[in-house]
Amino acid sequence: MYLKVLKFILMNLWYLVRWLGLAMYHGLSALYRRRQTKMTVLRPRTVYAGRWLLADDPQFCGRAVVVKQGE
């Protein structure tokens, strides 16, 4: 009788620990993924379009600045 109760408690405790671990794993991975996308957006980008460069420079308040590429 006591063995069945102990087994029942341990099995339910295992499922609870497993569920909490998976929930934490998925939550942290979602937060990390969101942080990575924000970090890539903050990086200045340079887009090459023919002989012109579109530079996303923070010096110009985030506006795209057109700079002629040296030939």
From TrEMBL:
Keywords: Membrane, Transmembrane, Transmembrane helix
Chain ranges passing through the membrane: 12-32
Domain Beta/gamma crystallin 'Greek key': 50-71
UniProt xrefs under InterPro entries: Beta/gamma_crystallin
Name of the protein: Beta/gamma crystallin 'Greek key' domain-containing protein
Organism: Citrobacter braakii
Lineage: Bacteria, Pseudomonadati, Pseudomonadota, Gammaproteobacteria, Enterobacterales
